[in-house]
Amino acid sequence: MDRREIRMRQIAKYGIFVITIFMLYILQSTPGFMGFFGLKPVFMLPFCITLSMLDETWQAGVVYITGGLLTDLSCGRTPGTFTILLLLVCFGSIIAVKFFFKPNKQNIITFNFACMVVMLTVDFYFSFMFGGYTGKLAYYLKNVLLVSAYSSIFSILFYYFIEYINQRFVRFDAR
What we know:
The protein is an all-alpha fold. It is built from 7 helices and no strands. The model has no long low-confidence stretch (mean pLDDT 83).
């Protein structure tokens, strides 16, 4: 394969991932979709974390930035909050996969849960602890821990999807 064909395959691959992020945004923003006892899953964060564990290239950063900005938009937060958190978590997951563990299904679910708890705890702290809201512990348990657990289950589906796309667009060195 020549360089142009390799580049076109990479653009197509990451284009599919960006389109997937937009579709997940639509699903996440749909009222009542996958609601379970008042909990709604967050789809974009586990997708980006799973992608960072399975594909360590710098081009995936476009997907992380898109996912972070769309998460900010869907949560009503200041633009850039989840984007910065997601970039830091994805960079940390790339380092964790390189040096500490292999990205199998159990590790992906566990790492997604841990990363989402950290991200949502930071969001909880800056959004609600400074506001002086009452009932903080119940809110934290429901909207941080349970949402993180419910959302990290979907990382298995994302794992299979990302593996399928990576196999269809086999990585080639462009050097």
